[in-house]
Design goal:
By secondary structure, the protein is α+β, with helices and mostly antiparallel strands. It contains 3 helices and 3 strands; from the N terminus they run αβααββ. Strands 1-3-2 form a 3-stranded antiparallel β-sheet. Strand 2 and strand 3 form a beta hairpin. Helix 1 crosses helix 3. It is globular and about 35 Å long. The model has no long low-confidence stretch (mean pLDDT 90).
């Protein structure tokens, strides 16, 4: 796992069940200069999903909320 992927995993797991906006995530990972770089965020989320999910195209752990952000859910 890359350092950025690890940071994403940490921020999502600390906010389990909450939808985090693209802006919130990018500001906490890269700072204010990156807050509109949703494309980079999507790339990192895709690589993180490939490592976490058994079926990355049907994610169970990290949900996408189109136009808003991402949410990590508890799977039992």
């Amino acid at each position: 796992m890359t350092p950025i992927e690890y940071k994403l995993l940490c921020i999502l797991s600390k906010n389990l069940g909450r939808v985090l906006t693209h802006t919130y995530i990018t500001q906490h990972i890269w700072g204010h200069n990156w807050e509109n770089d949703v494309v980079s965020l999507r790339v990192f989320m895709a690589t993180l999903r490939k490592k976490l999910e058994s079926e990355p195209n049907s994610p169970r752990y990290i949900q996408t909320h189109v136009g808003v952000g991402y949410r990590m859910i508890r799977v039992e």
